[in-house]
Automatic annotation (TrEMBL):
The keyword Signal applies. Residues 5-84 form the PepSY domain. Keywords: Signal. This is PepSY domain-containing protein. It holds the Pfam family PepSY_2. Residues 1-19 form the signal peptide.
Length: 88
């Protein structure tokens, strides 16, 4: 029983660690255009290696203006980050 509980707890912790960001569902016609949004981020100093739509979010992989690796999820309407992972 203890072993089953431990395995179940590890599965919950692992799944929450890999959960993607949650952006509210909004009509696509309200989203910022991908090309415009990328230009805006590049203007802020981001070097984008990969840009994709992840659920209801825009997601980038690349480097910030300080050269640190980043993975950031953005609300595609407001453009605000909703989740980020920045190299220390």
């Amino acid at each position: 029983m203890k072993k089953l509980l431990a395995v179940s707890l590890m599965a919950v912790v692992a799944s929450s660690a890999f959960a993607s960001a949650q952006c509210p569902a909004q009509p696509k016609d309200k989203w910022q255009k991908e090309a415009d949004f990328k230009k805006q981020l590049e203007g802020q100093g981001y070097q984008i290696k990969k840009f994709k739509v992840s659920g209801n979010c825009y997601e980038i992989y690349g480097k910030n203006k300080d050269g640190k690796k980043v993975e950031i999820y953005f609300d595609p309407v407001s453009g605000k980050p909703v989740k980020s992972d920045i190299e220390s």
